[in-house]
Design brief:
Helices cover about 60% and strands about 10% of the residues. By secondary structure, it is mainly α.
Length: about 270
């Protein structure tokens, strides 16, 4: 019984009762959904649910590995982000119902990842002997760390779509394409504009022909979504990098709200 209780209430040592309650609710929802997916053999969805449960343990693992204290606000935002992206976004199709959902989450991801990157370097700079990194250098490292996390997440989305038959890189209907793969001219860019409809001919396992019609254009299979995600991640990274620069420049005396996103070294 204690094992089950510890599983649902597991959190950082600094988490208050409200955050622990959020963990319990989110984990209960995730486990309930996972139990429902197994009889229906929806292994892709089951994989996402197991991944969600694993991601909920990130704050606690980071706290133990680096011997730091994670602010309550940062921990709450992290678990809300995880729940919003996997359970609500992917499995409940909030990405389809709310077009801004994916954009908002990737912007927040850029901001949070920058906060984590800044924290790691800032704590090292403050506690390691002989280190005196400039605020500008801290901001550059913060930005690079956030963008690296964003790129790695896009790699994960591509891998899940490629090998788990998911659709994390959302498709988009476009009305024009540029390609060197069509047309008679070798290595020449061919432009097709005002696309009205695309017809896809395929076969099922029995050899029967299937015709799929895409109205209003041509189906882009993820590149626009990926680039949009990286652009908004860029915005989030820049915003936190600027605040991180100002925070370090003034040696914590100003912009104190940044502390809500910066873990502190445990005494």
């Amino acid at each position: 019984m204690n094992i089950i209780k510890n599983f649902f209430t597991s959190s950082t040592t600094t988490a208050n009762k409200k955050i622990v309650l959020v963990y319990v609710i989110f984990r209960a929802i995730t486990v309930f959904m996972l139990i429902n997916q197994i009889p229906m053999q929806r292994w892709g969805d089951a994989f996402l649910l197991v991944l969600t449960l694993a991601l909920f343990a990130i704050p606690q693992l980071v706290e133990r590995m680096f011997n730091i204290e994670i602010p309550n606000l940062l921990e709450l935002i992290i678990i809300l982000f995880i729940f919003s992206s996997t359970i609500l976004g992917e499995l409940s199709d909030f990405y389809g119902y709310f077009k801004i959902w994916d954009t908002a989450l990737h912007t927040l991801n850029g901001f949070l990842a920058a906060g984590v990157g800044f924290s790691l370097v800032y704590l090292l700079n403050k506690n390691a002997e002989g280190m005196n990194l400039s605020p500008l250098f801290l901001a550059i490292v913060t930005f690079c760390f956030s963008m690296t996390v964003g790129v790695m997440w896009e790699f994960f989305e591509y891998s899940a779509d490629r090998w788990m038959n998911l659709d994390m890189q959302k498709d988009r209907v476009v009305q024009q394409i540029n390609s060197v793969s069509i047309g008679a001219e070798s290595n020449g860019v061919n432009h097709i504009e005002n696309i009205q409809r695309t017809v896809i001919e395929s076969e099922d396992n029995s050899g029967n022909s299937i015709e799929t019609v895409i109205d209003a254009g041509y189906l882009d299979i993820g590149i626009i979504d990926t680039m949009k995600d990286l652009f908004v991640n860029l915005i989030g990274a820049i915003v936190f990098s600027v605040f991180g620069f100002l925070y370090a420049q003034h040696d914590q005396k100003k912009y104190k709200f940044v502390r809500n996103f910066i873990p502190q070294k445990r005494e």
